[in-house]
Amino acid sequence: MNDFLGVKLADLDEKIVNGMQIITGVVAKTEPLVIQINDKLFLTEDFLVLTSAVKKYKSKINNEIVIIDNSLSINETVIMLKQQGGQSYYIIDKEREL
After folding, report:
1. What is the mean pLDDT of the segment spanning 41-66?
2. What pLDDT is stored for residue 1 in this prediction?
3. Would the pTM count as exceeding 0.90?
4. Which of 15, 43, 57, 72 is paired with 25 by a 20 to 30 Å CA distance?
5. DSSP letter at 48?
6. Torsion sign across C-alpha atoms 28, 72, 30, 13
7. What would the DSSP string read from start to end of 55-88?
């Protein structure tokens, strides 16, 4: 069963954490990034903030620069924090099989 912080993904839509709502979405497009929340709501990059858990970045490991690629793919389910007012959506992780 897929979960996030001990909560089943199916139950995330209505959870509120510190004034932010936890919601899920699906990657509709990657270039430019578009996340589908429901049949009518599509979020563009202007409203999205990505964490390192869902993007490509460089890191120094054992004095060597390596590229970590956590980029999103079409149809992946993402877990987001929706800021009150709905102006920003923080993509904090993606669904991963255990």
Report:
1. 94
2. 43
3. no
4. 57
5. E
6. positive
7. SEEEEEETTEEEEEE----TT-EEEEEEPTTSS-
Contact 58, 64 (CB under 8 A): no
Q: Which burial class, exposed, middle or buried, applies to 27 when counting CB atoms under 10 A from its CB (0-12, 13-18, 19+)?
A: buried
67: pLDDT strictly greater than 70: yes
How far apart are the C-alpha atoms of 35 and 47, rounded to whole Å?
A: 10
User: Over the stretch 71-97, which tens digit does the pLDDT of each residue have?
Assistant: 999 999 999 998 877 789 999 999 877
Q: Assign residue 19 a region: left if phi > 0, alpha if psi is -120 to 50, beta otherwise?
A: left
Cβ pair 82, 36 in contact under 8 A: no
Return d(Cα 54, Cα 39) in angstroms, integer. 23
